[in-house]
C-alpha cells in the first residue's frame, strides 16, 4: 500500500514543501530491527547504507529538514515507511519573541516600547 505525493499534499491543511528540504539527506530512524534473525539484520544494514551516516557531534541540527522512519512488524513481516518534514521552532518564549526568532516582524503599532513585545 502507498500514497502518491499529490494525494498527501491535497489532504494537508498547510503543507510545507520547499527545495531546501531536499538539500540534506534525511535522518534515518529504524524501529524494531533489533531481532536476531539474519534477514532482519540484513534489512537494517541495507537501510543504514542507503543514506550517509550522520556524525552526531558535528551535524548542524538546523540542516536536518526530514526524518525517515522505517518500522518492522515481526508478526506480519511488513515494513512501514514514514517520511516526515522537520521544522525547528522556539519553545517556551513569548509570542513576540518567537516571531523575532523566526525572522518575522510583528505588528508593533499598538506598543509603546520594545519591552512590551518581549
TrEMBL record:
Domain Brix span(s) in chain numbering: 1-118
Could you tell me which InterPro entries the record lists for this protein?
Brix, PPAN-like
The domain of life is: Eukaryota
Q: Which PROSITE patterns match?
A: BRIX
UniProt-annotated location(s): Nucleus, Nucleolus
- Name one cellular component (GO) term: nucleolus
A GO molecular-function term, please? rRNA binding
Set out the biological process GO terms recorded for this chain's protein. Answer: ribosomal large subunit assembly; rRNA processing
The principal location of this protein is nucleus
UniProt name for this protein: SSF1 protein
Supply the source organism for this entry: Podilymbus podiceps
Write the gene name.
Ppan_0
Amino acid at each position: 500500500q502507498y500514497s502518491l505525493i499529490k494525494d498527501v499534499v491535497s489532504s494537508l491543511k498547510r503543507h510545507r514543501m520547499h527545495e531546501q528540504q531536499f538539500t540534506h539527506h534525511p535522518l534515518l530512524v529504524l524501529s524494531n530491527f533489533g531481532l536476531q534473525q539474519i534477514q532482519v539484520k540484513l534489512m537494517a544494514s541495507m537501510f543504514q547504507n542507503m543514506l550517509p551516516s550522520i556524525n552526531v557531534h558535528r551535524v548542524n541540527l538546523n540542516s536536518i529538514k526530514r526524518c525517515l522512519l522505517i518500522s518492522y512488524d515481526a508478526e506480519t513481516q511488513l515494513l512501514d515507511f514514514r517520511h516526515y518534514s522537520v521544522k525547528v521552532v522556539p519553545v517556551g518564549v513569548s509570542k513576540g519573541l518567537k516571531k523575532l526568532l523566526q525572522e518575522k516582524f510583528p505588528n508593533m503599532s499598538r506598543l509603546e516600547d520594545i519591552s512590551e513585545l518581549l
